[in-house]
Amino acid sequence: MSRKDILKSLEEAPFAGPELPDYDFRQAGATDLLGRFTASAKVSAAQIVHRQEVIALAGKWEKVINLSSEIAVKGMDLSQFQSPYELGDLDLVILDGEFGVAENGAIWVASDGRPFRVLPFIAEHLVICIKKENLVGNMHDAYAKLEREKYSFGVFIAGPSKTADIEQSLVIGAQGPRSLGILLI
Fold first, then answer.
1. pLDDT tens column, 135-152
2. Which of 13, 41, 77, 166 has its CA 20 to 30 Å from the CA of residue 98?
3. pTM reported for the whole predicted model
4. 125: CB partners within 8 A, 6+ apart
């Protein structure tokens, strides 16, 4: 029997399975968003940080860029850079996130108005500030929220980058920041 014949017989076979329930996934994760987000973020190797910790981190390193409107930390002026290639040795980047997803600890970070899209990916350490009231239950809620907004570029970030080799040795921060701190405001 050819592949074409098999696919044709599958298409013609009646489906005898049960009816699927009518379920609104966007209503599924509406309880304890903060607790669920915090737990999910920790599972993805992100750290929930406090304002004083971020200030201490920024004071520890010299190459810091702060694009957050939520925390007053002095950083380098991005206007002095012509190219993202000049930013390859950043110690810390602090950004604002648009919203967070409780089911997986991901944060939507849009680059609208930022000079370099690469900032969340090239620093050794990343801190994302997010308002607690901007948490949604799950990815269905997140995509519904994205449909209402218009972004030229954005990305969901959930924890620092990770990779494992064939021997299952987990390496955190292999292709991006070695740490992700989340400041909940």
1. 999 998 999 888 777 778
2. 77
3. 0.81
4. 57, 61, 91, 92, 93, 177, 178, 179, 180, 181
